[in-house]
Design brief:
The structure holds three protein chains of three kinds.
Chain A lengths: L1 H22 L20 E8 L5 H15 L3 E8 L1 H13 L6 E4 L3 H5 L6 H4 L2 H6 L2 H5 L2 E2 L2 E2 L2 E7 L1 E5 H7 L8 H14 L3 E3 L8 H10 L16 H15 L12 H9 L3 E6 L1 H10 L5 E4 L10 E9 L8 H11 L2 H11 L6 H7 L6 H6 L3 E3 L7 H11 L9 H14 L2
Parallel strand pairs in A: 1-2, 1-3, 8-9, 11-12
Antiparallel strand pairs in A: 3-11, 4-5, 6-11, 7-9, 7-10
Helix pairs in contact in A: 2-15, 8-9, 10-11, 15-16, 18-19
Chain B lengths: L5 H5 L11 H29 L2 E3 L5 E4 L3 H8 L3 H30 L6 H13 L2 H11 L6 H8 L13 H29 L3 H9 L4 H12 L1 H16 L3 H7 L10 H10 L4 H26 L6
Antiparallel strand pairs in B: 1-2
Helix pairs in contact in B: 3-14, 4-8, 4-11, 5-8, 6-8, 6-12, 8-11, 8-12, 11-14, 13-14
Chain C lengths: L11 H29 L3 H4 L16 H4 L8 H32 L5 H13 L2 H14 L6 H11 L1 H14 L2 H9 L4 H12 L1 H16 L3 H6 L8 H4 L11 H34 L2
Helix pairs in contact in C: 1-14, 4-7, 4-8, 4-11, 5-8, 8-11, 8-14, 9-10, 11-14
The chains are: A alpha/beta, B mainly alpha, C mainly alpha.
Family (chain C): Belongs to the binding-protein-dependent transport system permease family.
Protein name (chain C): Multiple sugar transport system permease protein
Keywords (chain C): Cell membrane, Membrane, Sugar transport, Transmembrane, Transmembrane helix, Transport
Chain lengths: 421, 307, 285
């Protein structure tokens, strides 16, 4: 008697659990979309996913959101932070699950636009806001003539040099050309205990280091329609990079060196030259304020100015299109001069809006970088094959430091880019 | 060993030995079955489905392509080297783990003051996250800020820091050391348990027969450990085969695919080439290989006890 | 076990040799975590100084262990609570589900038993990295996205295998006569399981608990995509928040990692003796 009862209970329990699970939506394919009620007066919730630039990024965004929500009670913003390493993987999973973020901060955007996933800039920001971006940046946000991204930050690379080491090695002039950089780095490598030049070709930022050198020879990665990696100018630059490695004027194993630890050796005073960013200035201030260093333009083949410029952007995935008005409110609020300059200067980046540039024109830290912006070469982010090219640089470019010939490596990268068309 | 119905008919249903039909078993295995069906089946099926699709780099499902992705996977020139690395990785890690664990368990089975504390210390790498343990190793062997490199230079073995993780071969070696390090605790404990279950009389008898130490170990102790080893090796094979974090952290920065195993290659295809379809196909291949290995293993070693 | 009464009649010298060797073994296994602990006591700038320092030069920064609970990057206290809740509930669920299955398969023959046992072990072989795409879709459909319940179910389902297999062999090693005697007394199967068998296989349950708990505690791939609210995320995901684009708060990464080890070690300390007993009963015929 008792035995039967117990079994009955178990069977009933299992059946109930099964029912519960099936009722939770196993039957149909209706995914997402159950949280956006768009009846008048209702609160619109925006999902926002952004990467961490620094320790302070989360707090900065939280402040922006808090003030924005206080002024706009009908919009709520859910902030999700991710590390740079994970953000694109998480984004892809979300796109596949039809739950792409309403506001997203990232580098690549063209392939999203090419597949019609992004809302045009004019749908997510007022005319005044769109018109305030510096034209050169706005141009980089267009696919087939339509602007999608709202440029969030800009940054340029500059040559950081260690004055103490230069003095010890008897180098008096800050190098302006490749040959001068080579010889100065060689002097430091030979005459001091430190390495001359830091070349990070590991998978963190091999594409960045490469474009700095390519730009120094008038090269680039191509344009919106064609990825062109194995051009004569680029090959010549890659071969010079290889010469730097072969002559032993760089740190050891450049092919597996990441930018962050390499810049840290510079900050610790153990490296003669390295290409750094505006943030590097802040890091030196907190981590080794005693460092005697200077900032100069990038060394190029002929001495003509050129550098790598990077811009990241805010964009909005359309989803069902019902949240565009709320996104617009947020973007207009965020890009207003005071809110935006506070954000961008706290993060230590260069502003992309005209009103922001005016406000920050007097900033001492940013000045050398702002001066370099006009000669900056950017990644071809408007080319849908850029993402694949970027990945190929990250996993393959380091091979020039391990003995593979430079033209072969560039050919291999070009092949990966062509395969992604 | 599947369905043996004939003798079952004759057995009485109320017998403690016979559960009878599958239906009678359902209340007992049902919850486990339900959990697996509800949670595991869909994502596993979705992975297989994705492996037959063409998916854009963004994640949009474009069209079905049948087995094209598998054709691409098998035509990949990098694949032979990757499979070879995988074999080396699994065989070396599991073999060394088992050998070291056998010795360590033997030692931890001997009584001495403080033994409990030593056992606790051996357990720590099991409790700690593999990602963090690997990260500490990675930074310790860094040529610039690595404590381990500094130690080697301080005691005069090296003139200056050596980039252990900068080239394929030494980096793979470091990864193998880390994998062995984190696999030892579980394996040691399983074997230790096996050692304790060996009856003292068996050992006494061997000693009476005049067997020497190694003879006793090889012909008396080791056969008794078979059951413990079977479980330890099975779990180790699956875990080592599917391990991603160790190699991703230690060999991740090395350009090209010369230090990749199947698992890290899947990760690179997903992360850098952004191909969910190809990486799904690779995962299916990976899964099939593990499945076959485990099936052969279960069939020959029979770690599951029969009723 | 007292100092000199040893079963293999070891001499005093041998015992001392063993203590020295034991010390060496313990040191070897603890070194990486000592490095971690020392790192967590350094200042942010000292961790990456060149050359590195063995000990914190500017004095041990115990304050790191206070400030790490209130960092701008992630709410560590909430993350710890999430980890505990998810791991405990998932472990409990595994026990509830695995115990009857392990008991029944060890005690009774039924058609499909081998298939069932193999299906269970298959769940262990799937790799989470590629499964996350499907899990994400599924949890959205089940309306469990960004909930603890989702991660409890996922952790339980993917860690079921070990618990079922190890407990299966424990139940199998309990003599059947025990069951038969009880059934003659008129006890039902569930009663036999709870009153007669469970006390006998207690070590096996402990073993299953440890395995399940440890792997839930360190789970990362699924939590990363399923849990989007910072407060809901476990420590494994929270750690990645300290990694910025160009700099990382290593002192907190190390500190949080040390704190994350402690609860698991405490669990081990409480049940170390039973774990040994447990494994021996299960793994050996």
């Amino acid at each position: 008697m008792k035995k039967r009862n117990l079994r009955g209970v178990v069977v009933a329990g299992a059946a109930a659990a099964a029912l519960l699970l099936t009722s939770c939506g196993f039957g149909g394919g209706n995914t997402g979309g159950n949280d956006d009620v768009s009846s008048p007066g209702a609160v619109t919730t925006l999902d926002m996913m952004v990467p961490s630039y620094s320790d302070g990024t989360k707090a900065l965004w939280e402040k922006v959101i808090k003030d924005f929500e206080a002024a706009n009670t009908d919009v709520k913003v859910n902030l999700e932070m991710q590390s740079w390493e994970n953000i694109e993987g998480v984004l892809k999973t979300k796109i596949q699950g039809n739950k792409a973020p309403d506001i997203y901060n990232g580098g690549a955007f063209a392939e999203f636009a090419a597949e019609g996933l992004l809302a045009p800039a004019t749908d997510i920001a007022s005319e005044a806001t769109v018109a305030d971006f510096q034209p050169s940046f706005a141009e980089n946000e267009k696919v087939d003539g339509t602007q999608y991204g709202l440029p969030l930050i800009a940054s340029a690379r500059a040559l950081f040099y260690n004055k103490t080491l230069m003095e010890e090695a008897g180098v008096t002039e800050v190098p302006k050309t490749w040959d001068e950089l080579h010889d100065a780095a060689k002097a430091i490598s030979d005459k001091t205990k430190s390495d001359g030049y830091g070349m990070p070709l590991g998978n963190e930022e091999a594409q960045g280091e490469s474009l700095i050198w390519f730009a120094g020879n008038g090269g680039n990665f191509g344009d919106a329609t064609n990825i062109a990696v194995d051009t004569p100018a680029n090959v010549e630059a890659a071969e010079f990079m290889q010469k730097m490695v072969k002559d032993g004027v760089t740190q050891k194993d450049p092919g597996a060196t990441q930018r962050t630890p390499m810049l840290n050796t510079f900050i610790q005073g153990k490296l003669g030259f390295a290409y750094g960013l505006p943030q590097t200035v802040g890091q030196i201030k907190t981590e080794n304020p005693k460092l005697e260093y200077g900032i100069a333009p990038v060394a190029t083949k002929s001495g003509e100015p050129a550098t790598l410029g990077v811009a990241d952007r805010l964009m909005s995935f359309k989803n069902d299109g019902s949240k565009a008005a709320a996104v617009k409110k947020f973007m207009d609020y965020f890009f207003s001069a005071d809110v935006y300059t506070d954000w961008v200067s706290t993060e230590g980046f260069l502003p992309t809006t005209m009103s922001g540039s005016e406000k920050l024109a007097g900033d001492e830290t940013l000045k050398p970088f702002l001066d370099m912006l006009p000669n900056a070469v950017f990644y071809p982010t408007t080319n849908p094959a850029w993402n694949a090219t970027d990945g190929a640089f990250k996993s393959l470019m380091g091979q020039i430091a391990t003995g593979k010939s430079a033209p072969d490596v560039l050919k291999e990268i070009q092949a990966k880019a062509d395969a992604a068309k | 060993m599947s369905v043996a119905t004939a003798p079952k008919r004759t057995a009485k249903r109320s017998s403690a030995r016979e559960g009878g039909s599958f239906l009678a078993a359902l209340p007992w295995i049902g919850p486990a079955l339900l959990l697996i069906l509800a949670i595991v089946v869909f994502p596993a099926g979705y992975m297989i489905y994705n492996s037959t699709r063409k998916i854009s780099q963004v994640g949009t499902d474009l069209k079905g392509v049948g087995l094209d992705n598998f054709a691409k996977v098998f035509a990949d020139p990098a694949l032979p080297r990757i499979l070879l690395n995988t074999v080396v990785w699994v065989v070396v890690v599991v073999a060394f783990t088992v050998l070291i664990s056998l010795a360590l368990a033997q030692f931890l089975n001997k009584p001495f003051p403080g033994r409990t504390l030593v056992r606790m210390a051996v357990i720590v790498p099991w409790a700690a996250s593999v990602v963090m343990t690997t990260t500490v190793f990675y930074y310790a062997v860094d040529p610039n800020y690595g404590i381990f490199n500094k130690f080697l230079t301080d005691i005069g073995i090296l003139d200056e820091g050596f980039g252990f993780t900068k080239n394929a071969v030494p980096a793979m070696a470091v990864a193998i050391v880390v994998a062995i390090f984190v696999s030892i605790p579980f394996t040691t404990y399983t074997i230790l348990a096996g050692l304790q279950a060996i009856p003292n009389e068996t050992l006494e008898a061997a000693r009476m027969d005049g067997a020497n130490r190694w003879g006793t170990y090889l012909f008396v102790i080791l056969p008794q450990l078979r059951g413990a080893l079977a479980v330890a090796v099975l779990i180790n094979i699956i875990n080592v085969f599917n391990n991603l974090p160790i190699l991703k952290i230690i060999t991740g920065a090395i350009p090209g695919y010369s230090a990749d195993t199947l698992m890290t290659y899947i990760f690179k295809v997903l992360q850098f080439d952004r191909r969910l379809d190809i990486s799904s196909a690779l995962s299916v291949v990976n899964f099939a290989i593990v499945l076959v290995i485990v099936a052969i293993y279960v069939k020959t070693v029979k770690p599951m006890k029969e009723v | 076990m007292s100092f000199l009464v040893t079963e293999d009649r070891a001499s005093q010298k041998t015992v001392i040799w063993r203590m020295v060797a034991g010390l060496g073994v313990a040191a070897l296994f603890l070194v990486p975590y000592a490095v971690m602990l020392i790192g967590s006591l350094k200042t942010r700038s000292e961790i990456l100084s060149i050359p590195p320092s063995y000990m914190p030069r500017e004095g041990a920064q115990w304050s790191n262990y206070l400030t790490m609970w209130d960092t701008p990057e992630t709410p560590v206290a909430y993350n710890l609570i999430s980890t505990i809740v998810i791991s405990l509930c998932a472990t409990l669920l595994v026990l509830l589900v695995a115990t009857p299955a392990a008991y029944y398969t060890a005690r009774f023959k039924f058609p499909g038993k081998m298939v069932f046992m193999f299906l269970v072990i298959v769940t262990q072989m799937l790799q989470p990295a590629v499964l996350t795409a499907g899990l994400f879709k599924q949890m959205l459909a089940m309306n469990l996205y960004d909930t603890w319940l989702a991660m409890i179910l996922i952790n339980a389902a993917f860690n079921l295998a070990f618990a079922v297999w190890i407990m299966h062999s424990f139940f199998a090693s309990v003599p059947k006569e025990v069951d038969e005697a009880a059934q003659i007394d008129g006890a039902g199967k569930l009663r036999v399981l709870f009153k007669i068998n469970l006390p006998l296989v207690w070590p096996g349950i402990v073993t299953a608990v440890i395995f399940t708990f440890v792997s839930c505690w360190n789970e990362f791939a699924a939590s990363l995509v399923i849990l989007s609210t910072a407060e809901n995320q476990p420590l494994s995901v929270a750690l990645t928040k300290f990694v910025g684009q160009y700099s990382t708060a290593w002192q907190y990464v190390f500190g949080v990692s040390i704190v994350a080890i402690i609860p698991v070690i405490v669990l081990f300390m409480l049940i170390e003796k039973r774990l040994i007993g447990g494994l021996s009963a299960g793994a050996v015929k």
